[in-house]
Write a structure and sequence with these properties.
There is one protein chain. This protein is mainly β. It is built from 1 helix and 16 strands. A 5-stranded antiparallel β-sheet has the order 6-5-4-1-7, with no helix packed on it. A hairpin with an 8-residue loop joins strand 2 and strand 3. 21% of the residues are buried.
């Protein structure tokens, strides 16, 4: 009889250990502050004011976009931060990002695109507004060149921006690319030393929104804004 109780005690201990391990694994799989990506939708999901499907929609978050500071909430929702907004999204539409050694989320491998250079530095590779942009910096005849390619959610190349700095390449980078605008109207900003800034609307077709051109005259520095 004593042996039976001893075996039962051992089984209880094993069961408790397994249960604790399962709980810890679940907590590790989705801890507070996690970065997550929108999945399992055809186009976009709603970022809601409260963890309720009938709650007010704050904005649309498109397929492939990432959200910061995600944490479990009630009613199978996830509390998250999207730009300047804080709200809730159904957990069915979110997937935790896999992190690389550098701490950047892994993005799907791109199909071959003849426009992208095989050499050079990648300065932007991210998703915004349902589109993905990859920008690479290379050097051409002593000048720095920036090539940006905009892809749709199926990773089909839609349009490109190809700029070469008129100034000779120096130690400091002469080109850059980054996202700006609002969640409803995102834009790609391209900077080229000696030219200035240019804003392109993220969409199926290439559309220049505005430029901020620079010019040095008589020791002064002038800016010219042009809207398109």
């Amino acid at each position: 009889m004593q042996k039976i109780f001893t075996r039962m005690d051992r089984m209880k201990k094993w069961f408790a250990a397994i249960l604790l391990l399962a709980v810890c694994s679940a907590a590790t799989a989705f801890a507070d502050g996690t970065r997550m990506t929108v999945v399992n939708c055809t186009s976009w999901v709603s970022l809601r004011e409260k963890p309720d499907a009938a709650s007010k929609r704050l904005t649309k978050v498109y397929l492939g976009e990432t959200l910061e500071d995600c944490r479990p909430a009630e009613n199978d929702f996830v509390a998250c931060t999207y730009g300047d907004l804080q709200g809730y999204i159904k957990s069915d539409y979110l997937q935790q990002d896999r992190e690389t050694a550098d701490g950047f989320a892994e993005l799907p491998e791109l199909p071959a695109c003849k426009d992208l250079k095989k050499v050079g530095e990648t300065v932007l590779d991210a998703s915004k507004g349902g589109y993905r942009v990859v920008a690479q910096r290379a050097w051409k005849d002593g000048h720095e060149e920036l090539l940006a390619v905009c892809y749709d959610r199926n990773l089909k190349p839609l349009w490109t921006v190809d700029e070469v700095s008129p100034e000779s390449a120096a130690e400091l980078p002469a080109t850059s690319a980054f996202f700006a605008g609002t969640a409803d109207s995102p834009a790609l900003i391209v900077f080229v030393s000696g030219k200035g800034f240019a804003a392109y609307t993220l969409g199926k077709e290439k559309r220049l929104r505005w430029t901020l051109e620079t010019d040095a005259v008589g020791g002064g520095f002038f800016f010219y804004v042009r809207e398109y």
